[in-house]
Amino acid sequence: MLSAKNTLHIIDTLWLGGAQTVLKGLFENNAGKKNMHLFALRNTREKTVIGHPNIVINSSSFKLSFPIHKIRKLIKEKNIEIVHCHLPKSQLMGLLLSFLNPGIKLVFHEQGDIIDPVPLNLPVYILGKKRISQVIACSNLVKEELSKKTGFPAKNINVIYNYVNFKASGKSENHKQGKFKIGFAGRLIKRKGWRDFISVMHLLKSTDKEFEIHLAGDGPDYKEMQHSIEENELTGIFNYHGFVKNMAGFYKEIDLLVVPSHWEPMGMVHVEAMAFGVPVIASDVPGMNEVLSNRENCLLFEPGKPEMIKERILEIIANDELRKNIIEKGQETAGTFSLEYFEEELGKAYEKLF
User: Fold this and answer.
1) What is the DSSP string of 254-278?
2) Among the four residues 212, 227, 240, 283, which has the most C-beta atoms within 10 Å?
3) For residues 322 and 327, what is the distance between their CA atoms, to the nearest angstrom?
């Protein structure tokens, strides 16, 4: 149960992303609650559409837009008691608001930016240590890193995992005859391990297995990725889906998801895939391995080891019983990442503020 207190969520933009997806489900599941408000600091061409009457998007698309007067007016008109800030720019806005409106309770939602080698929001946490009432961390790893880097008291950091806001599809537990469809989903940046994924696909070509590659995602490495596909002679079996708004369709398409990230705050594609009955093989890295257990709900491998990834893929393809067990355990795991649980834990965190 969410708090009855008047709450304002602030986010940098409603661009299509993970934090925006979290807010979409939260607000649409509480569409009748008049005490919940959302303010996006900047307008974007593409945006997440949220079905709730209390959504305000600043008209400016200027990246340095900082509509503090509009937000202060909203705080006064709606008698806002809790300001919940998502993403770095919103956190800076929240810190400034805490000086101008000292009566508000300030909550930061940390999705993992603090883990970056040079976290942009580190100064905000250090300067706001005495003004931030609570932090919601998306994993225990994020909580530990935040406390270590900023000195923010661990007792004021609540770990609440993000949720999966769709039902399992009832996808068949057993791969049907034909080419095995191997998927990758993630932003095309180095730490997501897409280069390792392409290397593994090249290694698989030397086997007698028939397979297709399905890749969902975009990012700054797009051109390099396309060149790598051509260089490794994978064009004929490569299916590029680009940025996918409805990931449910993608998960229904594939037989296996490979998550070769070098590091992750937590990540959600592995949990989403498990919800759809897709077996997962993933890097054994902090954050992800808080919910992934080798040979129970997935197969794990050392990050940056294409040969090891290849072995795991071949094992999943060859062993029907193993694949079936991993799918069943994976769906059990995914079932614990519900929106209802997220709301319940968030409500408890809000209660601690008063």
Assistant:
1) -SEEEE--S--SS-SHHHHHHHTT-
2) 283
3) 9
Average pLDDT over residues 267-274: 95
Burial, 145: exposed, middle or buried (Cβ in 10 Å; 0-12, 13-18, 19+)? buried
The structure tokens listed for 287 are 């954050």
Distance, CA of 292 to CA of 315 (rounded, Å): 18
Do 45 and 151 fall into the same domain?
A: yes
CATH label of the domain that carries residue 301:
3.40.50.2000
DSSP character at residue 38: E
User: What is the total count of domains within the chain?
Assistant: 2
Q: What is the pLDDT of residue 177?
A: 66
Q: What is the pLDDT of residue 72?
A: 97
Q: How many CB atoms lie within 10 A of CB 187?
A: 14
- Tell me the average pLDDT across 311-318: 96
- pLDDT interval class at 46 (50, 70, 90): confident
| Dihedral angle over CA of 154, 160, 161, 164, nearest 10 | -170
> 62: which 2 tokens?
């200027």
Residue 347 neighbours by CB distance under 10 Å:
13
185/330 same-domain check: yes
Domain span holding position 194: 180-335
Which amino acid appears at position 34 of this protein?
Answer: K
Phi/psi of residue 294, each to 5°?
-60, 130
Query: Is residue 341 classed as helix, strand or coil in its secondary structure?
Result: helix
**Angle of helix 194-204 versus helix 222-231 axis, rounded to 10:** 10
